[in-house]
Specification:
The complex is a heterotrimer of chains A (760), B (99) and C (511). Chain A is mainly alpha-helical. In chain A, 65% of the residues lie in helices and 2% in strands. Chain A has a domain of 31 residues. Chain B is mainly alpha-helical. In chain B, helix 1 runs antiparallel to helix 2 and helix 2 runs antiparallel to helix 3. With 511 residues, chain C is mainly alpha-helical. Chain C is built from 21 helices and two strands. In chain C, strands 1-2 form a two-stranded antiparallel sheet. In chain C, helix 5 runs antiparallel to helix 7, helix 12 runs antiparallel to helix 13 and helix 17 packs antiparallel against helix 18. Chain C is globular, with a radius of gyration of 22 Å. Chain C starts with a helix and ends in a 6-residue tail after the last helix. Classes of the chains: A mainly alpha (760), B mainly alpha (99), C mainly alpha (511). The interface between A and C is large, with 52 and 66 residues.
Chain lengths: 760, 99, 511
């Protein structure tokens, strides 16, 4: 409705991106109705649809990139006044929007195609005559760097997962439904990604949640699976309270509008300029943060995510690692002005999001240590990495957060699909200690890809994870020479700790699964090409994706063309973010990359890999079937503080890495975290359920049945018992009636005579 | 005038009727007692009509006589039916309407 | 055609079922099939008349009463046969026209014990007339008559074809509702006398009240009478206790009609009568209505969590869902009231569907004890997924109908009209939002216990347990389609209801 008229030379693909979710939705319906009758039970429809969607997304990505590249650079930067709204978050500020090749081009401005879904009279209208200003509830597509990036990622991973699933779940009794829900999931995720209004966002958000419910509970015959599905849905539902309330607050704050564009514009203006005041933004963003925390597994609402691993592995890869769980992060990015302004601690340069993210990233990382289940390790690692993304957005490193989302999708999907391949070989078990070990030789390709994925996740240069992680650490802006804007020491430290932790637990996983001796029974075998092909592709992306956003200093140092530097930033970052100055005067700029930081961070990663490596090497040297030391480092429990010393002091290494770091982390600390997780956080969720059920039962029994219903029944009872008394009069004896009648007549006569008669 | 005598006579008749209704167990006698009550009323009506020189009292009395005839007809029919069904016209035994 | 519809359209629609019911009385009781055919034909014909009306309805002026007929009826009390359709009643008429034929279709081989299709269908048709009449009436006396006409057939449906405690439930339902109606009638009469009007016409009464000088206290009292009448019918907490009993004992068809349409008579009464005629009293009452509504939301949900009987659980969920409808009404904003109208239709479709499923489960398993059920998806996959779909709709999933009744009502509570206390209603908003979580909890719990898992040994090899029959499927699929369609095209109702509702809500706009 807005953009469509303004933008005239928009490439057709940008106005028809609705086709991409549309194709997937159509595929869902087709599979549902006709899938069972087809030779491949509907999988062929799903795969054809997702390939078409991926082709369209790729074309859209290509068009977007070429438009950006042909746009003239930098002019618009100066053209913008310092305190103006970031135009990347809403197109209407700079009008009319011209696209690349025109004079005064604004690169990367979003192309919004919006249609009226339905309209209602403004709830607070002045009069009916003002109906013209009724809030139209819009539905449409929002194309900018961020959504294009998501389109690409979601369709790409979904495509690989579709192919992978044909092998992985083949023969499943609900094969058709599985593919139908994969299609529906992809459709709703894309629908959400392209949201132009908060309503559309909510709809997509919830539909995604339902698909997750259906797919987690795919094998619902077993109660733990349906329990996990319920838990996921309900935890998300708790966050959704925040989503609904937050969106309602924004709706009224932005002058009765569901338009994301308008909300963003008004969020950056101060209260006097007709914008939204800080207090309202704070309330709204806190509510929305609850939604982010539940969907994107932030500490303390993350507990559903590991349980969600009850679903089929490809689903875990697609939904619970690469795409759906980043919906929260995506929403922060989409409503960045709201979150940025709202969660800024007033009068300081500090944004609260950074701390939520920081806490999550360490908390999740620690928990990953004590898992026996390879998928749970990966799940906690997802929690941890999502914390990274939120932290990045919190410290103001928008691009770094989005970039990490991008790279994480590839290597985490790679890892999950790798884990699936392992379990496919090891008679469908995910228990690393019981059923795996020594798979390096038996499944070389899975090993190689899993290795690449792990190293990318650990953030070892030059793999993808390194570049994005590095950018986040740089963005925290406390390392000397990064010229950062904030004083995010704590998040920075958390980020570093997590980098080390990640490397350590991934090394542990690798050792337990691929080294040592095979502990399961039956001979494992390498999986078929339909499983290997996605693995190879994803490993390839996990290797190269990071080069999309190399710092310019690195590019010139290596001698690559200068235009190769920070491409991702050019393509994805909304124009104007770099000049965004907020109300609290804590605008952010791009931090300067620092070579020393990169070296130190990578050093951390290497050290922690080495520590764990040695630990397991010694262990396996002692006993090939062992999975942990049996002589009990628990008895020699070191202090927590030594954990820090170990990293800096090489002298203790030989002694320490067997007992102290690994021991403390693996032992008490992680166990305490996990205990807290299971017995406190989880217990709160569970007891909230049982308490409300008990309250319901008590209320029902004592109040509803006892008081209210009793009142109703007893009034009937009173009527009936008084009838019982009167009933005795009804003797059936005509003579008795007659005597009563005469008695009454006499009484009346007496009254007449004595009371009234005297007057007359 | 001699209104009082009529009223007293009617009152006595009425009281006898009431006594009969309340104490007789025989249905026919109860009906007869009711007849007495009605006629006590009739006497009152006629006495007042004569006293007030107003004919409407006499009209009422005629009306009551007609209704009383009908009532006795129905009443006797009921008594007859009761007798046929129960071989007794003792009204204390007729308590089917007891609540 | 248009002239004909203007004069006769509504009358034909309302009385076709009644005429058919009379005709059926004259036919011999056996064979059943004749009665089924006549009943289905009559309700279809009614739907055709209705469809003609909806088709010829002028949607651009939805706030105007259309196809109005105004004839003298009982002159002594100035009651007139005065009917019409506008944007508020249209969605509900459509709902009624939609539900009843499907219920009759479902009855084709589901006549509950002790049988007697003739009487059962006659009652259904009388109900049909009563419900339609209530929605088209523009005269208070006429409204009252239709409102009460509905009671009797439902009483017999529960009392004759119901479960084990049917007599208790039927009497409770009848007396409770009648008690409210009595107070409502007193209110109607008070309006009539106090305004000194010569009419029971709703619109004219509204005008008279606004110009007359009836003290606010009196208006509040009159509103109170209507509140009892409509509130019991809704039912609002704490007047809801008849509902679980009635629903649990009623035959499937009775439950469906009760949930789908009958409960809406109460909320419709609020929107059609209480609010427009007594807008000032409404402002006084709104905080209390809102309070009872949110208590109902939480309370109904907690009640659901405590249930062990599937049908009783669904009945309690009605208390919670009607709480959203009443919350929407109590905001006194156009968006809130539109949401209430949407919520009524959505609840009618969704809960009606849930009762259908519960009925069919009962037919197969002969029990609705949740702890004994399980594995429905294994034994009857179609019924299982329909149950799953409907619970999703019921818990307010966006993209399905339930969401559009809930979310806008919550939204409207953020900024209520009529100068109502914002902080108070924002508290209501948050409580109502928390209610959505509880709703998800009990519905998913129900779904998990009944549909998921493997069937218990008790029923594992029971040959009686078959999947949905063709007939059931035919009568259910339209419900499912409408739930999806309304979820994706909410404008279907919002566009129609918006104009009349915003015109009504104009009095409460904070200037």
């Amino acid at each position: 409705m807005l953009g469509a008229e303004l933008v005239t030379q928009t490439p057709w693909i940008f106005e028809t991106v609705w086709l991409i979710p549309g194709i997937m939705a159509a595929s869902f319906m087709l599979i549902l109705f006709f899938g069972k009758r087809l030779p491949q039970k509907g999988a062929e429809i799903g795969i054809a649809a997702i390939i078409a969607a991926f082709a369209l997304s790729s074309f859209a990505t290509y068009t977007w990139i070429s438009e950006i590249n042909s746009g003239s650079e930098a002019e618009s930067y100066e053209a913008l006044p310092a305190a103006t709204a970031p135009i990347g978050f809403g197109s209407a500020v700079v009008e009319p929007i011209a696209f690349a090749g025109e004079e005064g081009v604004v690169r990367g401005a979003p192309i919004i195609t919006e249609y009226e879904w339905f309209s209602v009279t403004d709830p607070m209208q002045e009069s009916v005559a003002a109906k013209s200003s009724a809030p139209a509830i819009g539905i449409g597509t929002w194309v900018d760097g961020q959504s294009i990036m998501m389109l690409f990622v979601v369709t790409f991973i979904s495509m690989l997962v579709h192919i992978y699933s044909t092998e992985y779940v083949s023969g499943d009794r609900r094969y058709t439904h599985y593919f139908a829900f994969l299609s529906l999931f992809t459709a709703s995720m894309l629908f959400m990604v392209l949201s132009t209004s908060t309503i559309q966002l909510i709809v997509g958000w919830e539909l995604v949640g339902v698909c997750s419910f259906a797919l987690i509970g795919h094998w619902w015959e077993d109660k733990p699976n349906s329990d996990a599905a319920l838990k996921a849905f309900l935890t998300n539902r708790v966050g959704d309270i925040g989503l609904l309330v937050g969106m309602i607050i924004l709706f009224f704050a932005a002058g009765n509008s569901f338009s994301i564009e308008k909300i963003n514009q008004m969020a950056v203006l101060s209260g006097e300029d007709g914008g939204i005041s800080q207090g309202v933004l704070l309330a709204a963003s806190l509510c929305l943060m609850a939604a982010v925390m539940s969907k994107s597994g932030q500490f303390i609402l993350h507990t559903w995510l590991p349980d969600a691993m009850a679903g089929p592995t490809p689903v875990s890869a697609l939904i619970h690692a690469a795409t759906m769980v980043v919906a929260g992060v995506y929403m922060i990015g989409r409503l960045y002005p709201v979150f940025w302004e709202g969660l800024s601690i007033y009068g300081s340069n500090i944004n609260a999001m950074a701390f939520i993210g920081g806490l999550t990233t360490v908390g999740g990382g620690l928990l990953a240590f004590v898992q026996r289940d390879i998928k749970k390790v990966l799940a906690y690692s997802t929690v941890s990495q999502l914390g990274y993304m939120v932290m990045a957005l919190g410290v103001g490193a928008y691009t770094a957060g989005m970039f990490h989302l991008f790279t994480h999708a590839f290597f985490k999907a790679c890892l999950f699909l790798g884990a699936g391949s392992l379990s496919h070989a090891c008679h469908h078990s995910f228990d690393m200690k019981k059923d795996m070990g020594g798979l390096r030789k038996k499944m070389p390709l899975t090993f190689a890809t899993f290795m690449i994925g792990s190293l990318a996740l650990a953030g070892l240069p030059p793999l993808a994870g390194f570049w994005s992680k590095d950018e986040i650490l740089v963005g925290a802006g406390v390392w000397p020479g990064t010229e950062g804007n904030g004083t995010y020491h704590i998040p920075f430290i958390f980020g570093c700790i997590t980098a080390a932790l990640t490397a350590a637990y991934m090394t542990r996983v690798i050792w337990l699964t691929f080294f040592g001796k095979y502990r399961g029974h039956e001979e494992p075998h390498e999986s078929s090409w339909r499983i290997r092909m996605p693995l190879v592709l994803l490993a390839g992306f996990a290797t190269v994706a990071g080069f999309l956003n190399m710092p310019s200093g690195f590019v010139s140092a290596v001698g690559l063309p200068k235009s190769w530097a920070h491409k991702f930033e050019d393509w994805v970052e909304p124009e104007g973010v770099s000049t965004f100055v907020s109300k609290a005067q804590n605008g952010f700029t791009h931090a300067k990359p620092s070579l020393s930081l990169a070296i130190v961070a990578s050093g951390l990663v290497l050290i922690s890999i080495a520590v764990v490596w040695t630990y397991y090497k010694k262990l396996f040297a002692k006993d090939e079937m062992a999975t942990e030391y049996t002589d009990g480092f628990m008895s020699r429990m070191p202090l927590l503080a030594t954990g820090h010393k170990i990293l800096t002091n090489k002298y203790y290494l030989d002694h320490l890495y067997t007992d102290k770091i690994a021991g403390t982390t693996k032992g008490s600390l992680a166990k305490v975290s996990y205990w807290f997780n299971q017995n406190v956080l989880d217990a709160i969720v569970n007891s909230a359920g049982s308490v409300s059920a008990a309250a319901g039962r008590a209320l029902y029994k004592h109040f509803d049945q006892g008081v209210i219903d009793n009142a109703v029944n007893s009034s009937a009872g009173a009527a009936s018992s008084s009838g019982g008394v009167l009933r005795r009069l009804q003797s059936g004896q005509v003579r008795q009636y007659a005597s009563l009648m005469f008695g009454a007549a006499v009484l009346i006569a007496v009254v007449f005579v004595f009371a009234l008669g005297e007057r007359g | 005038m001699f209104l009082n005598q009529f009223l007293l006579f009617a009152a006595v008749l009425f009281s006898i009727g009431v006594y009969g209704v309340l104490t007789r167990r025989n249905g026919v006698l109860v009906l007869m007692s009711i007849e007495l009550i009605l006629n006590a009323v009739n006497i009152n009506l006629i006495a007042f009509a004569a006293y007030n020189q107003d004919l409407s009292g006499q009209v009422f009395a005629l009306f009551i006589i007609a209704v009383a005839a009908a009532e006795v007809g129905v009443g006797l029919a009921i008594v007859l039916l009761i007798y046929r069904n129960r071989r007794s016209i003792d009204i204390t035994e007729q308590n089917a309407l007891r609540g | 055609m248009t002239d004909f519809l203007n004069d006769w359209g509504i009358t034909l629609m309302v009385f076709t079922p009644l005429v058919a019911a009379f005709a059926m009385m004259l036919l011999p009781g056996k064979p059943d099939i004749i009665h089924k055919q006549v009943a289905l034909g009559a309700s279809t014909l009614t739907a055709v008349w209705g469809a003609l009306l909806l088709f010829n309805f002028d949607y651009d002026s939805a706030s105007v009463m259309q196809f109005g007929v105004d004839r003298s009826w009982i002159d002594v009390v100035n009651a007139r046969y005065d009917v019409g359709i506008d944007g508020i009643s249209l969605p509900l008429i459509a709902l009624t026209l939609f539900v009843v034929p499907l219920v009759i279709l479902y009855s084709w081989n589901h006549i509950p014990k002790p049988g007697n299709a003739k009487a059962f269908l006659i009652l259904t048709l009388i109900l049909h007339t009563g419900m339609l009449g209530t929605f088209v009436a523009r005269d208070l006396v006429l409204f009252f008559v239709f409102f009460e006409v509905v009671l009797l057939p439902m009483y017999f449906m529960i009392g004759v074809w119901g479960g084990e405690q049917r007599l208790y439930a039927a009497i409770k339902f009848f007396l409770y509702t009648l008690f409210g109606s009595a107070l409502m009638l007193v209110s109607f009469l008070a309006l009539y006398w106090l305004t000194g009007s010569e009419t029971f016409n709703m619109a004219q009464l509204a005008e008279l009240v606004s110009t007359s000088d009836i003290a606010l206290g009196t208006q509040v009292l009159i509103f109170g009478g209507m509140f009892m009448g409509f509130g019991i019918k809704v039912p609002m907490f704490p007047f809801h206790t008849w509902l679980p009993d009635a629903h649990t004992q009623a035959p499937t068809q009775g439950s469906v009609i009760l949930a789908a349409v009958l409960l809406k008579l109460g909320t419709y009464g609020f929107i059609r009568i209480a609010l427009p005629i007594l807008p000032d009293a409404a402002v006084e009452w709104a905080p209390w209505i809102g309070l009872l509504a949110v208590i109902g939301i939480i309370y109904g949900a907690l009640g659901c969590l405590a249930q062990t009987d599937m049908k009783r659980l669904i009945a309690f969920s009605s208390v919670a869902h009607m709480g959203y409808v009443m919350l929407g009404i109590s905001t006194l904003t156009s968006f809130g009231i539109s949401a209430a109208i949407f919520g009524m239709v959505a609840h009618g479709l969704i809960t009606g569907m849930l009762f259908f499923i519960a009925g069919s489960v009962k037919d197969r398993y002969h029990t609705l004890e949740i702890s004994r059920l399980g594995g429905l998806l294994v034994q009857a996959p179609r019924m299982g997924w329909i149950l799953g779909f409907t619970t999703m709709a019921s818990l307010g999933l966006p993209g399905l109908a339930g969401f559009w009744g809930e979310f806008p009502a919550i939204l409207a509570a953020y900024n209520p009209g009529g100068g109502l206390s914002q902080p108070l209603f924002r508290v209501y908003m948050v409580v109502a939002a928390i209610g959505t979580v509880l709703a998800a909890a009990y519905l998913l719990w129900l779904l998990q216990r009944t549909a998921f898992g493997n069937p218990s040994e008790e029923f594992a090899d029971n040959p009686e347990i078959t999947d949905a029959s063709k007939l059931e499927y035919i009568s259910w699929v339209p419900f499912l389609i409408m739930i999806v369609v309304l979820g994706f095209v909410p404008g279907l109702i919002f566009d129609v209801a918006d104009a009349p509702v915003s015109e009504m809500a104009e009095v409460w706009v904070v200037k």
